[in-house]
Write the structure tokens for this entry.
Amino acid sequence: MNELDIEWENRIASALAAAQNAGREEIADYLRLRSANDAVRREGIGWLTDSFIRLATSRESESAGIAVERLDGHTFLLGRTSLTGILVEIKHGVRCIKVEAGWTRAPGDGIMRGGAMALGRITHFGFPKSNAELALIRREESLVWTAMDERSVVTRLDADAIQRHFGLLTG
């Protein structure tokens, strides 16, 4: 967890204690829900970014000269929505994959459509037709990353799909 997330959790905890002390259970319930949802978002984003990082830091990738950079607290726009989260850049020569994922933090940041817990995108430098917009969706008791391509076709983003994205970097 980065400093921004730690500070956010501390502020939520303080607000929760204040709401409980003031007898404002509806606010306390909201803050507990918000905190639980943020933990789910961090877990889903962690799986996504760690999946790419694992591929990029494998023995084969390191010997091929693949470099990885990770930035926490990254802010980016997806449409009109401002998201804060993580950026992972994976570089191989002139090729680059950027994986961005985050969620809105304040009311002025916009909305996340479709019931998404988090949003993101995969950007392939030089291969724009391979880019994808991502959404972390609750399906029954699990979380699922979905990817929408340039034709608005939505598919599940699983380990095989991540491998295919990564293959564009090395292929």
Observations:
- The first helix runs from residue 3 to 21.
- The first strand starts at residue 67 and ends at 78.
- DSSP finds four helices and seven strands in the chain.
